[in-house]
Amino acid sequence: MEALGAAARYAQYSFWLETSGDDLTPRPALEGTVDADIAILGAGFTGLWTAYYLLQREPSSNVVVLEKEIAGFGASGRNGGWLYPGFPLSLGELARRYGVETARAVHYAMRETVDEVERVLRPEAIDAHFQRGGVLRLARGWHQLAALEETARTLERLGISDYAEWLSSEQVRDRVRVSDAVAGLYSAHGAVIHPGRLVRGLARAVERRGATIFERSPVVDFRGGSRPWLRTPRGEVRARVLVLAGEAYLSQLRPLQRALVPIYSLIVLTEPLPPELWEEIGWNERELLSSQRLTVDYLQRTADGRIMFGGRGAPYRFGSRIADEFDRHEPTHEMLRAMCYEWFPMLRLHGVRFTHAWGGPLGVPRDWMPTMRYDPRSGIAIACGYTGQGVATANLAGRILADLITGRPSRLVELPMPKHRLRPWEPEPLRWLGIRYVQVSLERLDRRAETTGKPPSGRSLAERLAAH
Q1: Which one of 234, 237, 241, 330 has the fewest CB atoms closer than 10 angstroms to its CB?
Q2: Which CATH class for the 2-79+195-260+367-419 domain?
């Protein structure tokens, strides 16, 4: 009975886990000491993709995955289902820091990642509700047009204008009828997925390949060196290589407390819409949608005909705290519901209700750049810092870590992420003061732009601090 109760409890964390089509009853926890070749912290996208590719390269490897709750409990089971080439650091910032050719190399690696995930689905029998409908970035109102035009100019400047095409308001309307859309930038290089079905399917796939997953086994400490280990309250895994793949949750381990800050992203979901309402809205290809708001919004149309609307707004918690009660922040969830009605006024006219609301933390590095490193001397590998762009980036991270750990030469290990070192965030209370200042300021800038019709200047302190 206790196991059945646990499965029902985990289903409440997100619509994706609830409808994953998988038994959420926890796998056995780690008891005692276990020896392995590879020990992985975290059964989310990063940990599972790393295990998948390690076992593909070295099928005889003994791989053990430790998960605090159940596979997909964290961001992998709660995100917006955006499988697309977006990277945590913008193309313009990548070019500024690393040069144009490196920015292009990262971009094309991310494009290929979408194809790679699709390639894995069929042989592993994972029905992730995949549909390659593309990505549609919108300027909702004239105040957002300048930001969209700058994105188009960046693509042109980097020589990758083939990635996206400019759409007029009429062309946007042909795809989806969103209020106040004055222009769009559409790319076919993207797909919508059901992330819960993907992450749970990946867990089964790595088990078929020989990995062992221990659930409800939180890692409380780790050590590298001559005898690396991961320790839980009731056991320990000793391994040649440790992989730290806990994303935002890594901030709860003392040695990594300032490596990332957990920022909450929240989501609301409508009931399934009737066919006549979808005829009015369009959105037949299930394109990924977003606008140019500084505080971020992201939408998808689910396979069962719902609208998912996600965004920021929940406050950063002092000391980088993570707790279940932070997954739901009613002021933010209510704001997201109101925004969804603004995007699609016909929803309110038809009395469409919202059935689900959830959220969870994502990991933000100090310089916004993700890290995918392996240090053979300590035996520790780490991949983290996706800033909410992790669905595709985590697959790339898994392939990079697998190449680094097995010593396989590849063009992926020449990208800047394996050379990147995490820069520590400021100590508290400076961290809280700075992050809350940026969060509140960006919200005000968005509201001012929507009220006045004038775009943000890009020169405010908050915009410069958040630029990436």
Answers
A1: 330
A2: alpha beta
Contact 195, 392 (CB under 8 A): no
Q: Are strands 212-214 and 63-66 parallel, antiparallel or unpaired?
A: parallel
pLDDT (tens digit per residue) in 39-98: 999 999 999 999 999 999 999 999 999 999 999 999 999 999 999 999 999 999 999 999
In angstroms, the CA 224 to CA 342 distance is 51
Write the pLDDT tens digit of every residue in 340-373.
999 999 999 999 999 999 999 999 999 999 999 9
User: Which value, to the nearest 10 degrees, does the dihedral of the CA atoms of residues 151, 456, 446, 392 take?
Assistant: 20
| Every domain range in the chain assigned CATH 3.30.9.10 | 135-187+261-364+428-468
Neighbouring CB atoms inside 10 A of 384's CB total 28
Which CATH number among 3.40.50.620, 3.40.50.300, 3.40.309.10, 3.30.9.10 corresponds to the domain 135-187+261-364+428-468? Answer: 3.30.9.10
User: How many CB atoms within 10 Å of residue 174?
Assistant: 11
Residue 241: helix, strand or coil by DSSP?
A: strand
Spatial separation of the C-alpha atoms in residues 413 and 401, rounded to whole Å:
8
Q: Where in the chain is the domain with CATH 3.50.50.60?
A: 2-79+195-260+367-419
Instruction: Identify the CA nearest to 21 among candidates 68, 72, 67.
Output: 72
Listed residue (305, 291, 322, 287) closest to 449, CA to CA: 291
Could you tell me how far CA 130 lies from the centroid of its own chain?
Answer: 16
pTM for this predicted structure: 0.97
DSSP state of 176: B
Measuring CA to CA, which residue among 420, 415, 418 is closest to residue 108? 415
**Cα-based angle 272, 273, 278 (whole degrees, multiple of 5):** 140
Distance of CA 179 to the CA centre of its chain: 27
With vertex at residue 406, the alpha carbon angle to CA 404 and CA 407, rounded to the nearest 5 degrees, is 60
Beta strands in 271-313 (DSSP E): 288-290, 297-301, 307-311
Neighbours of 37 (CB within 10 A): 15
Instruction: Assign 1 a pLDDT band (cuts: 50, 70, 90).
Output: very low
Nearest to 302 by CA among 130, 175, 138: 130
